[in-house]
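Continuing the series of single-chain predictions for the mutant panel. This is the parent chain; the variants come on the following pages.
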Amino acid sequence: MTRARRGARPPLAVIVLGSIGLALLVGPLIAIVVRAPWARLIELLSSDTSLQALGISLGTAAAATGLSALLGVPLALLLAGDPEEPPGLGRRVMRSLVTVPVVLPPVVGGVALVALLGEGGLVSEPIAALLGATPPTSAGAVVLAQTFVAMPFLVFAIEGALRGADRRFDLVAATLGLTPGRRLLRVTLPLIAPGIAAGTALSFARALGEYGATVTFATSIPGITQTLPMAIYARLAEGDRDAAIALSLVLIAVSVVVLVALRDRWVPGVVR
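Parent structure:
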């Protein structure tokens, strides 16, 4: 028994390298907590610029999450298709396209949005005529950028839930004469409700922490488009490290809450 336990122990090199990797991931977060200006935390977070950035972040992240759900749930249904049939070329290509924003550098995503919707973009003139302004001049640009990077997380979480759902309930509902629309509303969506909740939480957390695509597409205008990540960078650029750390604690707290709420649900949905 003792030899068996020793044989199951990882090699020393694995333990050492794994510990270094864990320290690299956890160490910076511990440093923020240790260096946080706890005595001035309320003062720093209640400043006008901080409250404006927090309000913009929460509002745009909520709007981006809603837009991601509105468009992402139908997209996930298309990607999942019939689990009993192998995915065709169209679905494989579609899944690859949905994955692109996840692996694409956020700044490149912002440049792509500028090319599409920015000044002189492919569809900027019709949008400007409809809205009276180009999207990058308003908080709507922040929502679009956040949706671009956050929606894939929701799509993959819901697709994973759809693939793991028991299809027998849907078949029974079909034999009872329910139309596809009624089966979707009364059977499918309730079955995958935990996946929808997980995807929504992940999408919100990703939208709240988005920086690269947002600052490239919407720029950083205090009180209009400056979100928490932008405000953090601005405080660092000004040399106000305490304010940057205080704002960072807000994002860390949101991330921790999301991960604790989801526990291990998010892993299958994201890496599928």
